[in-house]
Amino acid sequence: MSEPIPPANGPGFAQSTGFSAIRTVGSLTPFIWVKKGFADLIVCQFASLFYGVAFALMGWTVAFFYGAAYWLTLAAMGAFMLAGPIMAIGLYALSRQRERGEEPHLRPTLSCWRGNMSNLGLFALVVGVVMLIWARASMVVFAVLYDTGLPSAENFISELLAFKYVEFVVTYLAVGGIFACFIFATSVVAVPLMFDKGKDAVSSMLISLGVVARNPLAMAVWAGLLVFLVAVGFATGFLGLIYTAPIAGHATWHAYRDLIDKDS
Question: Where are the domains of the chain?
Fold first, then answer.
């Protein structure tokens, strides 16, 4: 006789997807993930901060090479956020070490991506294509809505502060939001799944879509927290990423653990 199926609205309900099992969580659960992520940062210390410094260096590199072409810089910053799940795989490895009761070590995490390199590479390719399309779309939005040509950085900032080109701001945010939502929805648990269970890229992305569909409120809160953590890092000239990026990475691992049934 098969086991009784828990009610669909019950806590911790696991929905079979054919690939894994998706669990429901409360809308405020993402705050717990962030708290656990901070705890991982405190325990892992140097290893976590190593990845934080790497994130900050990447931010500074983007700003250095694209500083003059600020319209590309904005797109690059958006791409930076979209690529976060892949860049944080070492942080997932550190959280898993701690979860297993092991002492966190940096060295093994530097090559942890090799276990499922082909699928991680495929996922990276998909993200890369989306990033390129977003960069092109960013330039098109600027070109279309600034009929006098691309403004200088000084004029652009002053015009934004004066609430000029409202159509541009709305369009830019709408277009960027579409790309961001797509990547977020397909990557919530995709990379942890590929890293932890060796899932293929397509199945992992589909499972991530299922997670978002099953937990819309929690995922909205989670997306907001991730944006906040990244925004703090950007607002401090990328210096804050040394701390906020590891917290987000570790928290993503705990999100994965809560959202996907361990026995799947």
Answer: 31-259
